[in-house]
Structure formats: C-alpha cells, structure tokens
Amino acid sequence: MRWPEVRALYSLAAWAAQPLLRRKLRRRAVAEPGYGEHVEERFGRYGVARPVGDGPLVWVHAVSLGETRAAAILMAALRQRLPGMRLLLTHGTATGRAEGRKLLRDGDVQVWQPWDTRGAVRRFFAHFRPDVGVLMETEVWPNLIAEARACGVPLALANARLSEKSLRGAQRAGWLLRPAYRALTAVFAQTEADAARFRSIGAPQVGVLGNLKFDAQPDAAQQAQASRWRAVLAGRPVVMLASSREGEEGEFLGQIKALALSGKARAAPENEANARPSPLWLIVSRHPQRFAEVAQMARDAGLAVAQRSTWTDAPPTGALAADVWIGDSLGEMALYYSLADVALLGGSFAPLGGQNLIEAAACGCPVVMGPHTFNFAQAAELAEAAGAARRVADMAGAVAAAQALLADAAGLAAMRRAALGFAGAHRGAAARTADAVAALLAGQGLAPSRHNKQP
Question: Of these residues, 37, 41, 67, 99, which one is catalytic?
C-alpha cells in the first residue's frame, strides 16, 4: 500500500476516534481538571492569536512533565541564541501544561497539541504559522509531521531517544511510521545508539547532540530547604523511591513492613544507644493523580504516614515521627533528591524502562536501579560505570542495597561525589541544540562537523 493510501486510512481512524478522545478527556478531568480546559484547542480551534513580533516564532511541543522540563532547558538556550524569539508551546497532558505555564514570557502562547487528524493539524498550522518546530524526545505524529512539511515548516525531533523496544514497534508499524520519520527535517539524538536506531527507521539528518537534562541546574532554594530539613531530621537517613509507577509502591511498602516486623528497621532495645536511626522512607509517585492512592496504601500497610502537601516550609513534629513521607507536590524533585541519602529509581523495577536518573545525579544523590532501564539505557550504563548508580535484580535487592549504603559512610560519600562528577561531565547539549535549531531557521540544516558528536 502506498503512503497516500496509508495516510488516508490512518487519518480516517484518527477522525473516527474523536468522540472517544472527548469522552476520555471528560473522564480524566474528574481527577485532573486541566484536561477539561480549552478542549477545542485539541481539535485545532483556538481562542488565542498568533504571537506578534519581529523575531521568529519557535514552536516547541513537549507532551508531558518530563519533556517540558527538558524543553525548559532548551528554551533558555534558544532565548539566548535567538533574541526576540516568540514561543508557541504545546502539550498533551495536564501536568505538562501546568509546568509549561511557568516558562512563558510576555507574548508567548501555550495551547494543546492538535489531535492528529488532517483537519486539526491543518487548522493549527494555518492559525499559528510557526517558523520552525521542535518536537521533544519521542513525539512522532504522522499527520502533524506531514503537514509541517507541506507548509514548509522545518521540524526537528530534539533530545531524541529511541529504545530497542520502541524501534521494534516502529518497524512493525513501518507502513505508517517510516514515512513520518523520513518527513522530519532533522533528528538531534541523545546518544549514538539512539542515532543508529533513528537512521535505521529512515530519519534524515541525524546528529548526536547529547541529553539536555545534563544541563539542568538543581533549584538552589530547594537544595537549601533540603539542608534545613536534614538538620531537623537530626541524622535520620532518607531513602527515596523516586518517580515510582503502579505496582512498585506496593513492593516497596511490603519491604518496609517486613523490615519493621523483623526488627531490622529499628534498633533492638539493648542496642538502642549505639544504633543508627531508622530510615525515613520517602515515596514520590510519577503520576500526581496517584498521590492519594499511594498514601492510603502506606496507611493500609500499618505505617505512619505524613504527606508533603499538608505543610509549607518545615515538616511538623508529627511528620518527623512518621515511617513514610509521601512527596505529593509538583516541581520539587530537587528538594526530594537533595534530601535523600539514596534514591531507588522508579520505573526500573517493573518492565517500564525506568525514569531519568540525571536529576538525581545533579543533586549528588546516589541511585539504586532495577533491571529495566531501556528508556534511558546509556545514561544508566554511564552512571553505573561512573560509580554514581548501582543495579539490582528487584525491589528487595534495592532496599537491601540502600540499607547497606547507609551503613557504609565512606562508600555513600564516594557515590555522592561520583554522581556530581557524572552529571557535570556530560553538559553542553542545550547550546548545541539551540545552535542546530538556529541553523534550521537559517536553512542550513545540521552541520556534522559541529554537532554530530557525543558530549
């Protein structure tokens, strides 16, 4: 089947799915009201005008929270590289949009990504007429990319990653996705392994610019707040389950409960004077809609729970006596990583590909990760090789490894130094990517001698 016919069938399916999308948005809006806002934008109908000004209109699409945080790093570099630029920022999730709102300046516009029907994406491009487009990380939508090409809008996939698992999926749907990848103007890959996979699926102008997240600087105010909290905790160590996913919290809480019942988590009465304080266990779920559920899971396990959302600056006395803290706040990962002595990497204990450990490293927080890190394979391998992370087989091994590190002050300090060194050694992707976007604006494409190398 030829591409025009394939695209026609895909477009028909996307058009027919619109009522299902509206129903899904209504359901999601019950728990997350953001999904009920500006719904018509998703269908290419906008109540905001195209930004005006003399500089170029740069469109950045960051689907969710993680991509938006990476986009923030790129946007700062773009504003330096392209003075006077105007920003069109699009998202697919409520958490992404809430985070993106913080990045806007006067004259910028933020809307939802159009649903991938021909009509919606055509209305999007006709209304906003961006000068260049940047899709963050993994966002490949056939109609969106085809329409950008038809409108002459250079479109790059930035901070791009493609795991072996995702590549196999793209190859299975090659009749639809190969033309979409080929229609991109350029791909700015995180690693050479990612670049090789993009080339194999037909992407053009693939350069290796590095991972934008290495350029993120932890929030200094949050780090200072973490220092104050550590002083209040009076030497009590903190073990964090970071960006956890469904199923992982239950395993983690099961391990904590088993330790408490066995007496290993607390000192025996005869050794109380010389024993280390019992750990404070901190859980930060990846998805905000699950904060309350995770807190209730901890209570159901018979553990004393305190929730970050119930206090402002300093934890109250009751929180200091809790077994488990629930990090039910947004935008405070630097606080949590700076507070933790060890972080267990969420998404890596179930076959979900793991979360990004770079922010933990930038805060000097050692990481223990499970077997599943295929979404961030090279970062995980480099961190392990640098001594900033350790790999274990399962959650039981992770909790045991964390406890062993707490008992090894010298080893823990060495891992902290290694984490900071690892984070600092791979910076520079933001400037390289901003230069590459500017080159696309100038019609120059990707310059291999300048950009196609791993930091």
Answer: 67
